[in-house]
Amino acid sequence: MDKIEFKKMAERYNKELLENVLPFWLEKSQDKEYGGYFTCLNRDGSVFDTDKFVWLQGREVWMFSMLYNKFQKNEEWLECAKQGAEFLKKYGYTGNYDFYFSLTREGKPIVQPYNIFSNTFACMAFAQLAEATGSEEYADMAKKIFERILERRNNPKGQWSKGVPGTRPMKDFALPMIICNMALEVEKIIDDKELMDKTIKECLHEVLDVFYQPSLGAMVENVSSVDNSLVDCFEGREINPGHDLEALWFIENLGVRLGDKELVQKAVDISLRVIELGWDKEYGGIFYFLDSKGYPQQKLEWDQKLWWVHLESSIAMLKGYQLTGNEKCLEWFLKLDDYMWKHFKDQEYPEWFGYLNRRGEVLLPLKGGKWKGCFHVPRGLYQIGQMLEDLSK
To answer: What was the pLDDT predicted at 245?
Structure first.
C-alpha cells in the first residue's frame, strides 16, 4: 500500500467516528434527567432498558475524556464525560471504592460489586477526566480506585465468588491483561513510580509467562492459582482469541513505553499465531471462543463473530505493522478491515452491529446493551484512524 491509500483509509475511519458513531452516543445515550448513560439501545438508538451498567458508564466517561485529551478539544465531549462522572461519583460505588455492577436509572444499586472491571474502567475514566479538567478531586478518585484494584487483585470477586474455596482454585487472564492497559492510563497521576514499574512487570510476567502457552500459540483464559499450571476442564481449556489480541496490542504499547523492541517483537509474533488459530477458515471472521483440545464448547456462543473481537484484532495487526513493518500484519489488517465494513457496519442507521452468527449475518440488531457500550467501536475507529494517518506520512 502507498501513502495515498493509507490516507484514504484514515479519512474513512475518522469520518465514521466523527459523523456517525460519536453523534449517536451523544444524542441517544445521555440521560438528561438523572445523569449517566443509557446503553441498551435499539438499532435506531431508541432505549429498550434503562438499567445502568457501571463498567459501561466508566467506559463512556473514559471515551469522551480521552478523545477530548488526544483528538479534539470538543466541549460537548467534555460535558458528556463530566455528567457521566458525576453520576458515577454520586451512585456508583460503596464506601471502600468497590463499584457496583449495575444500577437503576435513578442510581440505586441492583447488583453487588462482584465485578472488578467496574473498578478498572472507573479508574481509567477518572484519570482521563482529571487530565482533561485539571481536577484534583477526579485525580484523587482515580488514585483511590487504583489502590483498591491492587488490594483486590489476588481475590477479585472476594465474598461474591461462586467457587468453593480450595477445590479448584483458578485465576483468569482478563485482569492482568486490563491492568497492563490501565497502568499506562493512570501513570501520569500515580506518584509512586516504583509501584507502577512493579505493577507493569508483574502483569507482563502473568500474560507472557503464565497465561501464554507456546505449545498452543495462544493464551488460555484460566490457569491454576496455586502453581500456574493448566487445568483440564472447560474453563481451563478456554481460549478467547479477541482477548489475546487486545492484550497483545496493550503489550506493544508497553514495549514502546519501556523502549523494549524485543517485547514489541514478541507481542507481534504471538499475535500472528493467535489470529491464525482464531480465524474461521470456512466463513471468515474470528471465533469468539476455542477449546485448546478441540473439544465441544460449553459456551453456545463460541462460534459467533463479535464486534469487539474484530476491532481489537485490527488494532493489534495494524500496530504490529506500524511498529515492525511485518507485511503479514498488514495483510491481516486488510482482511479484517474488509470483513468489518461488510458485516458490522450498519448501512442504514448509525453505530455498528455487535453480534453476528458464524456466517456473518446479524444476530441481534441492537447497538448497545449490557455488554456493548460506547467503547470498542469508537476506540477502534480512533486508534486505527490515527495509525493510518501516521503511516500516510
So the answer is: 98
CB 304 within 8 A of CB 285: no
Phi, psi of 200 (to 5 degrees): -60, -45
The Cα angle at residue 307 between residues 295 and 383, in degrees rounded to 5:
125
Determine phi and psi for 317, rounding to 5 degrees: -70, -45
218 neighbors 274 (Cβ within 8 angstroms):
yes
Ordered DSSP codes for 151-185: HHTTSTTGGG--SPTTTS-EEESHHHHHHHHHHHH
* φ, ψ at 47 (rounded to 5°): -85, 130
148 and 116 Cβ atoms separated by less than 8 Å: no
pTM for the whole structure: 0.97
- Residue 343 CB partners (closer than 8 Å, separation 6+): 285, 305, 353, 356, 360
The per-residue DSSP string of 96-131 comes to: TSPBPSEE-TTS-EEE-S--HHHHHHHHHHHHHHHH
For residue 338, what is its C-alpha cell? 474488509
pLDDT in tens, 149-187: 999 998 999 899 989 989 999 999 999 999 989 888 888
Return all residues near 76 (Cβ < 8 A) that are at least 6 apart.
Answer: 26
To 10 degrees, the CA torsion angle through 255, 183, 75, 61?
Answer: 130
